[in-house]
TrEMBL record:
Keyword flag S-adenosyl-L-methionine: no
PROSITE patterns, A to Z: CYTOCHROME_B5_2
Main location per the UniProt record: endoplasmic reticulum
Protein name per Swiss-Prot or TrEMBL: Cytochrome b5 B
Organism of this sequence: Tieghemostelium lacteum (Slime mold)
Membrane-traversing stretches: 115-134
Membrane topology: Single-pass membrane protein
Amino acid sequence: METQQEFTLEEIQKHTTLESLWIIINGNVYDVTSYADTHPGGIDVLLENAGKDATNEFLDIGHSQVAMDQLKELFIGVYKPTPNSSSNTTNNNNIQQPQQRPTQPPQQKESSVPILPIVIGAGAVVLGLAIAITRSITKK
């Protein structure tokens, strides 16, 4: 098993600018500096979560599988709690315990309703109606 770099909250909190931007997701630390300019949600959301745990924000927004796969490339280590971590910081009450280097991206919250078949079916119905209306108009 390879040794992973461990970072304290104090170290992570030093990386809150566009020149060096780190976030914590599920106890893992990611350097998102190189991704900030191309982040579809904009730079501001990354800056708002820089230097702290962004697990809830990341999962709540509904990121694509591609976005979750990109996290593997941005992984730099794991969060290592210290006795001082929770007493002298704010907005970090939800930091999750570190995990091993991610082999799988964080899991999105799954819907119990399969959306894709519904969307495809609705599209087929609309297309069928459009064709039927077009045919009835051209016959007149």
